[in-house]
Each structure stands twice: as C-alpha cells, then as structure tokens.
Amino acid sequence: MIINIIYFIICQKFRNITTVFQAVMCVTKNPADIVTEKEMEYLKDANERQTRQFAAIVAERIGIHGVAIVCYAFGVSRNTVYRGLHELQAKEHLDEGKVRKKGGGRKSTLSVHPEYINIFREIVEFDIAGLPQDANTKWLRLTPSQIQSIFSDDYHVEVSLYTIRQIIKAEGYTRRKPVKTLPMADCELRDEQFKNIERLRKECEGKGIPVFSIDTKKKELLGCFRRDNGTAYTTEAVEVSDHDYSTFSNGKMVPHGIYDVGRNTGYMTFGLSHDTAEFACDCLVEQWEQHIRHIYPNAKSILILCDGGGSNSARSWQFKWCLIETAKRLGIDIRIAHYPPYCSKWNPIEHRLFSQISRVWSGAVFNNVEEAREMASRARTKTGLAVFTSINRRTYETKKERNPLFKSECDKHIIKDEILPKWNYLVKCN
C-alpha cells in the first residue's frame, strides 16, 4: 500500500514537470522569443564557435532547463551547448581566424603508415631517370596509377591515388615542363656584346636618339587551322581542320614587328610573301613614313637592335645592301647592333611586344590576314603599350644574286665599330 502511494506521488510530480516543460517549449519555439533582435543579427554572421558559445550564454541566462530550451529553440544538440559552456569556463582563446583547436580531424594516411614511403622508394628505385650533367635533376618514369597498381599487386596494400600523390610530393617530385635556358652552343664574346648593347642604348637614350628593336614573329597559316594550344572563351568548341597542310590554306602570313623601346609602342606589318631582308627594310620604311617620322621629326640617326640570323642576319650581304638603300630613302643614319647567336630571346621585342600579340591571338583562328591585323591592334598593357598595324601585299623574291656594286657601296656607307665589328656598324645615308 505504501509503495503504491509513493509510486503515485512520483508519477504525479513528473507529470507536472513534463506539462510545465511542454508549456515552455510552446512559448519558445522561435529563437526570437528568448533573444533580442540585435542578438539575432549577430547570429547571422557568427561562425560555429561563436554560435555554440552564444547558445551557452543564453542557456545560462535562462537558468533552469536553459540547455533544453536553447536546444529546442535553436535546433542544436545538447553536446553543442555543453561544449560552449566548457569553452567559456576554460577561457580558451584560439588564433585569429581559427574556430577549432589544432590537431582535429582524421589523421593523414602517411602519419599512420610511414612505411608507405619506404615501399614507394623500393617501387621506383629502378624507374628514376636523370641527367648526366645535373645529378640533382631526376624524374619518375612511373605514373601514380602504375605505382598504385604495384602497391596492390606486389605488396597487397590498398592505397588511394591521393595518398600516392602525397608520397610523390613528399619525395620532392613535382610536375614540371622543361625550361628553355640552355644555349644551343657557346658563343665567344657573348657577354662583351651584351655590355656593348647596354652601352649603346644608354648613349642613344642620353642623346635623344630613337632605339628600335626589330624581328619577325613565327609565320602563320591562314585558314581554318588551329594555330597553337592557346584557349579562348567560347560558347561551343571551335571546329578546325584535323590537318594543317599548307596546300589547303589561304596563304601564309609573315608578321614583322618594330618595337620603340623608349615609347613602349609596337608597329606590326603583316606580309603575304617571304621573310627577306628587303621585306624587313620595307616594313621599316613604311612604318617610319606613316607613324614614326612625326614623332621624331628632328632625328638624324636611329639605333636598331636585331637578331643575328633570319632576314636581318649579321652575315647577310642582302641585309646590308637593303640597309644602305633604306638609309638613303629615309635620309637618316642607321646604327645596327646584332644580338649574339642563340641569344634572340633577350631582344626587347620578344617579351615586350610579341608576347602581347600572342596573348591576344590565343585560341584564335585566322581565315585571312585582316582578322590577324585587327586582333593584333587590340594588344594593350597596363604599362601603356600601343600597337599600330598594316598589311604588306608585295611579293618578294628569294635567292637574289649579289649586286656587283655591293663592295663599293659598303666601303662608302658602312662604318664598322672598333668593338666587335661583325655585330656593330653604322650605315650612313650619304
């Protein structure tokens, strides 16, 4: 009898508590019922650490049944609120920008299984190649998927490709492409010529003499062909011919450039014939008459920096002959400084003008020379580069016979420098 009475009292007591708790829950279904509007705005931008600590503060503020009420109103677990209470009591402070203590999360595979690195070294021991001239440069001849298969087949270890790549990176291997830095051959007096070019540039800039860098860019086929591996933003893939035979093209384009070093201005001429010395000099004459003369109306001489081969070869009699004719036509002296062999990449036009032309041409298809010209004229940089373009439709002959007056004209108009005369000379206009 007594036991039944006690049981009845206990049931009644807990029934009242449940009723009271359910009544509280009905009132606090919305978080806005237990927090202010400003606190609600704060919660919108709070991170997980700030949210759980704020929930703990609200639970403490409510008092009895505060944790249960906050969990019901905010939709969070009791563990979250209790964790916030523990952090507040411990007064833990994390580094700026951090919301969790360091060391959390699943441990990396390599930290749990460091023996995988030794297995990797055994696998690739006989599949590492290197360079005889550079003992520090090595590369793998196995792909990550091949290494993964050997792990599974020979060592009965199942490893993910992600872990394999982590091991490869930890061993110092990174995907790289060859870098063009080694010269094709040793060139005597290479450094002396570079110092001489630097001296000539400073001397001309000090005297107000224009300095130009000239060269011919890679020839391009006109037609529905893919020029290079460049990309462009398109809604659909651009379809081009699967072969780039010149017999199916609309001709070949020869882009010749002149770069004004002092004014950061480029002049591109697009030829449709051959890259000859006559073509290069005609481009200079045309651009001088159309765009450059009015910029330097008082110029009596100019300095031209050019490569040692191609249409402006240092050993070409035709280039010197055409320079004499050009100097006479323009009425100015032309000083020439050739870069040493295998050093054309240091010619300013390569990295100041041609690189920007390649950028605007990236992924483009040229059906005619007008499209190439129009796109090249858009080349601009934040440093102020501007490009003027034109088209040269004249036909130029190759393999011309040497003019019998060449030697006498050279003696009259060409004065070789005392320093490296084969690469440095002055072409007089009279």
Short overview:
The chain is of the alpha/beta class. The protein has helices spanning about 1-25, 35-45, 50-60, 65-75, 80-90, 110, 115-125, 145-155, 160-170, 190-205, 275-290, 315-330, 350-360, 370-375, 405-415, and strands at about 130, 135-140, 210-215, 220, 250-260, 265-270, 300-305, 335-340, 385-390, 415, 425. The strands form two sheets. Strands 3, 4, 5, 6, 7, 8, 9, 10 and 11 form a nine-stranded mixed sheet that branches. Strands 1-2 form a two-stranded antiparallel ribbon.
Description:
- The protein is of the alpha/beta class and 430 residues long.
- Helix content is 43%, strand content 14%.
- It has 15 helices and 11 strands.
- It has helices spanning 2-27, 37-44, 48-62, 66-74, 78-90, 109-112, 115-124, 144-155, 161-170, 190-207, 277-292, 317-330, 348-361, 369-376, 406-413, and strands at residues 128-131, 134-140, 211-216, 220-221, 252-260, 265-271, 301-306, 333-338, 386-392, 414-416, 424-427.
- The strands form 2 sheets. Strands 3, 4, 5, 6, 7, 8, 9, 10 and 11 form a 9-stranded mixed β-sheet that branches. The chain has a two-stranded antiparallel ribbon with strand order 1-2.
- Strand 5 and strand 6 form a beta hairpin.
- Helix 8 (144-155) packs across helix 9 and helix 11 runs parallel beside helix 12 (317-330).
- The chain starts with a helix and ends with a strand.
- Mean pLDDT is 87; it is low at 3-29.
